[in-house]
Design goal:
alpha/beta, 3-stranded mixed beta sheet, 4 helices, globular
């Protein structure tokens, strides 16, 4: 199916983003501010721009650039979450068809100071 999966892990999915900033920086900050516990699966993600650049051997300037290079029309409004998610999924499907492997490209080595995380089974992770 083209998704990279590490045997022995408890997950067989990865969140796909178009850049690192949202998951690496904003999500942990917002969770701390809101007092929300982040499950451990948020420690890893796939930056589609990195996978795209490696697979096609050309720079990915962003979602619109990838769509244009793949000759896929933009659907909806750029930067509207549900439309971006749909467009990114379309890019992923095309990349899988083209033989790309979608896997983890970014991870937090450990939560930032004061970040609260919990395992998928509900147990807290102490940092």
């Amino acid at each position: 199916h083209g998704l990279a999966w590490q045997a022995g892990t408890r997950k067989n999915f990865v969140f796909v983003t178009c850049g690192n900033w949202d998951v690496k920086t904003i999500l942990p900050k917002q969770a701390r501010k809101s007092g929300v516990e982040l499950p451990e699966f948020w420690l890893e993600w796939c930056n589609l721009k990195e996978v795209y650049a490696a697979h096609y051997r050309r720079k990915a300037s962003g979602m619109q650039g990838m769509l244009k290079q793949l000759r896929i029309p933009l659907k909806g409004q750029h930067h509207l979450g549900m439309h971006d998610a749909s467009n990114i999924a379309t890019i992923v499907k095309r990349m899988l068809k083209d033989g790309a492997v979608i896997g983890v490209t970014g991870r937090h080595s450990q939560p930032t100071s004061g970040q609260v995380l919990k395992h998928a089974d509900g147990q807290h992770v102490d940092y």
